[in-house]
Amino acid sequence: MKHQNLFFAAAGMAAVLALGITGRAETYTTPDSVLCLELPGEEWKQEEEESVWVKLSNGEDEILLEHLSNGETLPELAAAGSGCEAVCQLVLSTENEVFILTGKAAKREELEEMREILQSAKILEYDTKTAVRAEESPKQEENPETEKRQEPEAEAKTEAVVETASFSVWVTSKSLNIRSSFSTDAPILGSAFYADALKVTGIVRENGQETGWYQVETAGGEGYVSAQYVSQTPPTAERSGITLTEETIPLYESGGEGAAYVSKATDGGWYDGSGRSFADNGDGTWTCLDSGRIWTEEPPSPPVSTAGQSVAVMDEEGLNSQTLYYDEAAGIWANTAGGVYTQVTSQIWQGPDGGSWFLVN
Questions:
Q1: What CA–CA distance (Å, rounded) separates 173 from 226?
Q2: Which of 173, 211, 264, 273 has the fewest C-beta atoms under 10 angstroms from its C-beta?
Q3: How far is CA 40 from the centre of its chain?
Q4: Residue 154: φ, ψ to 5°
Q5: How many other CB atoms are there within 10 angstroms of residue 35's CB atom?
Q6: Secondary structure E strands in 172-303
Q7: Is 151 left (phi over 0), alpha (psi -120 to 50) or beta?
Q8: Whole-angstrom Cα distance, residue 290 to residue 193?
Q9: Pseudo-torsion of CA 263, 266, 269, 272, nearest 10°?
Q10: Model pLDDT for residues 169-228, shown as the tens digit of each residue
Q11: DSSP state letters, 299-332
Q12: Assign residue 354 a region: left if phi > 0, alpha if psi is -120 to 50, beta otherwise?
């Protein structure tokens, strides 16, 4: 897909990506929003590049900005190659658009600075124009008479209600906004990433029909996500068309929050069982290219014998059960073998191999 540089000011287009770094602010305008990038110095210049929307460089490092419409196939995630030693990536999506920010560091020691620039990015607000699918005809301009006839129908709508529910879903997009309400205009509370598990606590309905929004459980209470970017079926590498080999390495998320086995695939990349992509940083650490989080090859300490609490859990098939212990000093859940388990919700844990374990009541 060929993207054109757009620098015109757009009235009413207020989707701003703001970075909390001192430097020179540059704005890049799309048909739906404005992307504001805070560059760390005057040495960063824009260069011509056919395959991306905007390419920026300081002579050594690069930042690539890609812009796509939601529904388009995402390009392959970047990996370190010629001209750079390390790479980090951030994927942000709105109702209609996807922004892919790729930072390429010429020197490995500069990767953290590059990652800080990308990961501090957030979409604060934006226009919610309706994206027209390829098979649909463009919407005709409405006239005042039509609008008048439609007014009574609009007034007849009932308020949306949240119907109580309890089931798990998994994120299917590269990144997913969690909002304070069931609207794309609502403030963003946080983000979830591909293969992350979410506990659904409610289904938003209007006039008895599902609106396409789920209420989900978050660390701070409740949030809302678009149902079209989640699935009740856990993702797997095989379903994503990835063929894994037997060359496998156990990885642990920095800080001990989670663990996973990553395997080399026939395409040369490294993936876990859910299909999340990982890049070797060459220093014993790895970057999850889907979330930008850092993982390490160094296993955490096993749980202390005086663990503050424990839970009995069972796998998805109901064939295996075990006890997980909470190490208060390290702030992690682990089994007796030292395997770290991520607590996804109050009743679900994710194991080192990506499998889900459920609380035994």
A1: 11
A2: 264
A3: 25
A4: -65, -40
A5: 25
A6: 175-179, 188-193, 197-206, 209-218, 221-226, 230-231, 244-253, 259-265, 270-272, 277-280, 285-288, 294-296
A7: alpha
A8: 7
A9: -30
A10: 889 888 899 999 998 888 999 889 888 888 899 999 988 888 899 999 987 789 999 999
A11: PPPPPPTT-SEEEEEEETTSS-EEEEEEETTTTE
A12: left
Residue 119's SS3 state is: helix
First to last CA, the chain: 51
Tell the residue number behind the tokens 């080399």, with chain if given: 264
Residue 255 phi, psi dihedral angles, 5° rounding: 100, -5
Measure the CA–CA gap between 270 and 249, rounded to whole angstroms: 9
CB atoms within 10 A of CB 274: 24
Q: Is 208 exposed, middle or buried (0-12, 13-18, 19+ CB in 10 A)?
A: exposed
168 within 8 A of 348, measured Cβ to Cβ: yes
Residue with tokens 């994503």: 240
**Per-residue pLDDT tens over the stretch 81-122:** 556 778 888 887 776 778 888 888 888 888 888 887 777 666
Using the structure block, give the residue that is written with the tokens 């005042």: 144
Phi, psi of 165 (to 5 degrees): -145, 170
Tell how far CA 237 is from the center of its chain: 17
Under DSSP, the state recorded for 241 is T
Tokens of 161: 């209600």
Q: Are 108 and 77 in contact (CB under 8 A)?
A: no
pTM of the model: 0.48
For residue 264, what are the contacts with CB-CB under 8 A and spacing of at least 6? 244, 245, 247, 248, 270
Structural Rg of the chain based on CA atoms? 22
Choose among 199, 232, 237: nearest CA to 218: 199
- Yes or no: say if 234 and 222 are a contact pair by the CB < 8 Å rule: no
* Residue indicated by tokens 């990536």: 89
CA pair distance 241, 247, nearest whole angstrom: 18
